[in-house]
Amino acid sequence: MTIPFFDGHNDTLLRLLDHARADKLDLFIKGSQEGHIDLPRARSAGMAGGFFAIFPPPLKAGLAQVAAAPDYAKGQLPPQLDLADAQKSTLGMAALLLQLERAGALSVCRSVGELTNAIKNNRLAAIFHIEGAEAIDTDFQSFEVLHAAGLRSIGITWSRANAFGTGVPFRFNADPDIGPGLTDAGKELVRICDQRGVMIDLSHLNAAGFRDVAAISSKPLVATHSNVHAICPCTRNLTDWQLAAIRESGGVVGLNFATGFLRPDGRFLADTPIDLMVRHVDALLEALGEDGVALGSDFDGAMVPAEIGDVTGVPKLLQALLDRGYGEQLVRKIALENWLSVLERTIG
Ligand code: ZN
């Protein structure tokens, strides 16, 4: 039995953009054994779709390397990115996403109706997500263009500051309440996203920004790829009050597979058991209820447990949840249905 799943976060577009090979589309469509996700492996694993993140990387740090080593800034916020630089890389990845759609590899879905249609027609269903709003100007002109191109999900910040807010630095044994909240432009961005059916992603935002989004947005609160701070006390994970606020709003958290956000010692080690992922799911279920837990792998952006390996390892996690005694109905919710439900209530 293959249980279809929808994934809350991958950095595959960044891996493709950064790749030395010219035939970037073929890397995805025909597949390779590199990285974590390509079309043949996604299909064989039962991946119905996911959030395809567009992450504008720091220019000097080496693109994919940054996403793979989230502690590279040593607990400090990385420098801010210029609008022009952010727009260049964002458009590069958006173009790849749209070219993949034109080549028939996936569908860029603008609503839950389009998502369910794509899934029904056996087409990989993609949500166009930006991880860090650096490419959006404070007059929101590029917002219009990106929205027209299919943008339906925004992480206001990656782990750095921008015109809209301040991200949480990568620190271990630390509380995410570091730094100031959203700017006026950031608060305006939240209002616009609510109006225009763009989901806001709280992963990477600091605690003050989280509180601002919770106060302004009328939509469910969502963290696409974050874990439980009580198990792994990293700033990227969610504390008890954050989980309670997400539950209160009817929101969702996607389980992040990055070993450094799973392990109680905060280390990025491939030798990390699937059991530890199950422990986070247990705690998320306890905090959020059966409607609030989903997947957010961070594939192609982080070191994941060796037992998972790549997207073809997701069925092992789902099997581990079944073995833990979760009913098939609950596993199907975690795998796919909870994402569809919260997307229906955010993007429509
Ligand atoms: Zn991330």
Structure described in brief:
This protein is of the alpha/beta class. 41% of the residues lie in helices and 12% in strands. The chain is globular.
Overview of this protein structure:
This protein is α/β, with parallel strands linked by helices and 348 residues long. It has one domain (5-344): Metal-dependent hydrolases (TIM Barrel). It is 41% helix and 12% strand. The protein has helices at 12-18, 24-29, 39-45, 63-68, 83-102, 112-120, 141-148, 184-196, 207-216, 240-248, 259-262, 274-288, 314-323, 328-344; strands at residues 5-10, 47-54, 106-108, 124-131, 151-155, 199-201, 222-223, 252-255, 293-295. Strands 1, 2, 3, 4, 5 and 6 form a six-stranded parallel β-sheet that branches. A three-stranded parallel β-sheet has the order 7-8-9. Strand 5 (151-155), helix 8 and strand 6 form a beta-alpha-beta unit. The longest helix is centred in the first third of the chain and has 20 residues, at 83-102. Zinc ion binds at residues 131, 203-204, 225, 301.
Key phrases:
alpha/beta; globular; 41% helix; six-stranded parallel β-sheet; binds zinc ion; 9 strands; TIM Barrel; three-stranded parallel β-sheet; 14 helices; 348 residues
